[in-house]
Design goal:
The radius of gyration is 23 Å and the shape is elongated. The chain is built from 8 helices and 8 strands; from the N terminus they run E-E-H-H-E-E-H-E-H-E-H-H-E-H-H-E.
């Protein structure tokens, strides 16, 4: 059950010359206060200094999240367009910065690009590739199950991460990790975005049961009588305003080996009265 707008993203690693990579959009990260250097400098020189001029005219200084788009490269490099993306202070650069960068780029350009490539600055740290992929997947999400399609739309399909440092096996491991995390988050978004007339307590319980079957989890579902017998008065009180009886879901994962600790995650899966949920 995945109603969110998410094309099947294909992530690829490439050591190709940044000036020759064929893509709709080339994304270059710029730290705050830094002049164009490294790959950004190479691209700027190939474009005759237009990125430097544009940055000066628009007072682009690399603040976190700020962007500057060059809409055409006039065939001087392989990429059709270039996006300068502010990464903020260099001393604060982290996986979280990279994740935000991927998320912001995907949100901003998902309707205008089917392919994009990220410069090598996005893959030079430990687990940066997985963070970037998470951001792109989460940023490309839209819940469009109930929307009417008024015309053709582009969707991001191919994402190239330029890097010569990461081994292919490690790259694929990071991408798989990113997909597991971000696609699960998008699935949760689908559940939250459904209207309560559809996502009733019993339907949510059925979905939880299916998840348990797929993931080899233990699933316990309490009906109204069980909820009352356990003294869960808050749930009983809130659900009394609906014709739909409540359900309480408990999913448990037990590893084969003895766990070092026990972790409990409590979710607010109320489908009738969200009590301030935003």
């Amino acid at each position: 059950m995945n109603y969110g707008r998410q094309s099947e993203l294909n992530f690829k690693q490439s050591g190709e010359n940044i000036l020759k990579i064929k893509t709709d959009l080339l994304v270059l990260g710029i730290f705050k206060g830094d002049k164009l250097s490294g790959s950004a400098k190479s691209v700027d020189e190939a474009l005759g200094g237009v990125l430097k001029d544009l940055s000066g005219n628009e007072k682009f200084e690399g603040d976190m999240g700020k962007t500057l788009l060059l809409n055409s490269t006039f065939g001087r490099i392989g990429a059709k367009r270039v996006l300068l993306l502010g990464l903020g202070e260099k001393s604060l650069f982290s996986r979280d910065t990279v994740r935000k960068a991927g998320n912001l780029t995907a949100k901003k350009m998902r309707d205008a690009s089917t392919s994009m490539a990220f410069g090598p600055e996005f893959s030079k740290g430990r687990a940066y590739v997985s963070a970037l992929a998470e951001g792109v997947i989460l940023g490309s999400y839209e819940f469009n199950k109930y929307k009417t399609n008024n015309g053709p739309e582009n969707e991001i399909e191919n994402v190239v991460i330029l890097s010569e440092e990461l081994k292919e096996k490690k790259f694929q491991e990071e991408i798989e990790t990113a997909k597991a995390v971000s696609e699960s988050a998008c699935f949760a978004r689908d559940l939250v975005n459904e209207p309560p007339v559809y996502m009733t307590p019993s339907r949510l319980a059925d979905i939880a049961s299916s998840i348990a079957d797929e993931g080899d989890l233990k699933c316990e579902i309490f009906d109204l009588e069980e909820i009352k017998s356990r003294g869960m008065g808050g749930i009983v009180a809130v659900s009394s305003g609906s014709a739909e009886p409540p359900r309480f879901i408990r999913l448990t994962y037990e590893p084969d080996k003895n766990p070092k600790t026990t972790l409990a995650v409590i979710g607010k899966g109320i489908t009738f009265d969200s009590a301030g949920y935003v």
